[in-house]
Design a protein that fits this description.
By secondary structure, the chain is an alpha+beta fold. It is 41% helix and 16% strand. The chain is built from 21 helices and 18 strands. It is elongated, with a radius of gyration of 26 Å.
């Protein structure tokens, strides 16, 4: 008991890093961590909880989707599809097949868990066998060879997530699987050990020190596999120690405001996966390790609703494959409970009611993530009855200011604006320093286009040849024909913030070729309009300054001084600016069309004259 007490005191020391709290005290970690393979966070599939504690309609929805999967064959994973990435840059063909196989298994396991009759067991066995016969569990974009090699078990996101899917299946159904064939259980445990537990322990992967989603996403699944499957106490403690170090590196990489520079689209696998690590640690140490009241951890959680707009929309800064917020009760409600965050809990309840989770839970589980996560759905179901008693509320915050990330949002009347500063070396970066988005009546008006399908170019030296990454396709100036440059040395300086108003100095976001000596952009929102002021000075004039505005509403520019966007308008001084419109619709790929529809336009304001000093103002209302 004295060792545990010392540990608890150490955990409360202000400013002490998580790794320092534990890795320097291995004996204390050894004294509080659950014994190998003794971790039991929730009822197993043979427990009556799953039959007695869930709404009948919800339980049946999972069973119905399991019945659908019974009729489907297991997808084949051709080597030629794996080779696509190295051959032609395509990621989606193999990933689609790979994720569908895992979705198939997860849905069957969920159905068997809530029904408990053994009806789905044969199909589950076949799915597990299919996974065992895969050479590698990850995806080609994260692999160095054109085809998978059994001796190269690189630990990537989906190698780890697949291992956790198998580990959860073992935890839930081990007696049933052993009754079928004890050799199958041994094989599955051996595969997790060979593909994940051993290579991740011995290799100093870059992501163990990273401040982006790979770190907690892998660690959450790695920790699950360690606790469910690792049989050796020494290796178990060593692995958890490494996970603590990695989680510490992730948290320390964030600033105090908790802002996610990867954007809302990656919060789901950044801060939300960090929560899964921390919650699992709290459970596995009987509460001895508990960061639920840590201010930075709480701030990292709240980012999800601080970037929420309305009608499920969120800001689309950085790489976004959707314009929708993380409206997943299975993520939000357990995390809200862990953090004691009433706004997050109510957001989860609001989402669940809007989605009719009581009847649609099976479909929502089926469609969630790249493939469904038992690690998220099952703990959520343990909280389900509690969530049903929660007050439901959409998180419509009036003002948000994240001073470290340099993101502001404001809501007045029917208008919403979000603006970002920061720098152009952020994770999943777009060259978008100083850009803003506007929503009116809860619908997109001026947008950030997000990103399209990932290809070999996306995370290569050719990233900024992709149009969605360029400042010319964000709501930004082009100065002397020069766009913003990528790199963390290119950034903004905050001139002034007050609720509803942000002024940024954008000079630092442009290379010297822009010949820019001053650019103060001010965005100010009141109940009637958004006013944008561009106050700039050039060292020399080489070509006209242009101001870009991106929209999915067809612009009507027939009337000088006003650009009509449906029932809203951008008003400008026609003596200063002339306007044109580029139709970008032909550029949209499947991901972008799914996000925005089939139309996208760029409004281009061109500044008249060759003045070196200028002040331009336009309004949106």
């Amino acid at each position: 008991m004295r060792k545990i007490a010392i540990l608890l005191v150490w955990l409360t020391l202000p400013g002490t890093m998580l790794a320092q709290r534990l890795t320097a005290h291995a004996a204390l970690l050894d004294s509080v961590l659950v014994q190998p393979r003794a971790y039991a966070p929730l009822p197993r599939a043979n427990d009556s909880f799953w039959r007695d504690s869930l709404p009948a309609t919800l339980r049946q929805s999972y069973i119905s989707y399991g019945e659908r999967e019974l009729e489907k064959p297991w997808p084949l994973l051709p080597l030629t599809a794996f080779a696509d990435f190295k051959t032609n840059g395509n990621r989606t063909r193999y990933e689609g097949l790979c994720f569908e196989r895992r979705r198939h298994l997860a849905v069957l396991v969920m159905a068997e868990t809530v029904e408990g009759t053994g009806r789905f067991l044969s199909a589950i066995v076949d799915g597990l066998g299919a996974l065992c016969e895969e050479t590698w569990w990850g995806i080609p974009a994260h692999y160095k060879y054109k085809v998978p090699v059994s001796g190269e078990q690189t630990v990537d996101l989906f190698n780890a997530e697949t291992a956790a899917l198998v580990a959860w299946t073992l935890y839930l159904l081990q007696p049933q699987l052993s009754a079928f064939a004890p050799q199958l259980v041994s094989r599955l445990q051996s595969e997790i050990d060979r593909r994940l537990l051993r290579p991740v322990l011995k290799n100093d992967y870059w992501w163990k020190r990273a401040g982006m989603n790979w770190n907690p996403w892998i660690c959450s699944n790695w920790l699950t596999c360690v606790l469910f499957c690792e049989s050796d106490r020494g290796r178990q403690v060593q692995a958890v120690g490494q996970i603590l170090q990695a989680t510490d590196a992730f948290i320390n990489a964030y600033k105090d405001d908790g802002g996610c520079d990867e954007g809302p689209g990656y919060w789901d696998r950044a801060a939300a996966s960090m929560y899964e690590v921390l919650n699992t640690l709290r459970q596995a140490t009987s509460g001895a390790i508990d960061l639920s009241h840590d201010k930075k951890v709480q701030a990292m959680g709240s980012y999800v609703y601080k970037t929420y707009i309305a009608n499920d929309y969120c800001t689309t800064f950085a790489d976004m494959h959707t314009n929708k917020a993380v409206m997943q009760p299975a993520v939000l409600y357990p995390m809200g409970c862990f953090l004691d965050d009433a706004v997050m809990r109510r957001m989860a309840s609001y989402a669940a009611r809007c989605q009719d989770y009581d009847h649609e839970g099976g479909r929502l589980f089926y469609e969630s993530h790249n493939f469904p996560s038992l690690a998220r759905e099952l703990p959520f179901l343990v909280h389900y009855r509690q969530m049903q008693q929660e007050q439901a509320a959409e998180p419509l915050l009036r003002d948000v200011w994240l001073p470290d990330l340099q993101v502001m949002t404001a809501r007045r009347g029917s208008l919403y604006v979000a603006m970002k500063g920061g720098h152009n070396g952020e994770s999943h970066n777009h060259n978008d320093v100083g850009s803003f988005v506007v929503y009116a009546d809860g619908q997109p008006l001026l947008i950030d286009p997000g990103t399209g399908e990932y290809t070999a170019k996306t995370f290569s030296k050719e990233r900024y040849t992709i149009w969605t990454m360029q400042s010319a396709y964000h709501n930004l100036p082009q100065v002397n024909g020069v766009d913003q440059q990528d790199g963390d040395q290119y950034g903004a300086r905050v001139v002034d913030y007050r609720p509803g108003r942000l002024t940024l100095d954008l000079v630092g976001a442009y290379p010297s070729q822009a010949a820019l000596t001053r650019w103060h952009r001010s965005v100010a929102l009141d109940r009637r309009r958004l006013t944008v002021t561009e106050d700039y000075q050039l060292a020399e004039w080489r070509s006209p300054v242009k101001l870009m505005l991106m929209t999915v509403v067809r612009p009507d520019v027939s009337r000088p001084g006003r650009v009509l966007l449906g029932s809203h308008a951008v008003s400008y001084d026609a003596r200063q600016l002339e306007v044109g419109v580029d139709d970008l619709s032909p550029r949209l790929d499947n991901v972008q069309q799914h996000t925005w529809g089939t139309a996208m336009y760029r409004i281009v304001f061109t500044v008249k004259g060759d003045a070196l000093r200028n002040r331009i103002q336009y309004t949106i209302q």
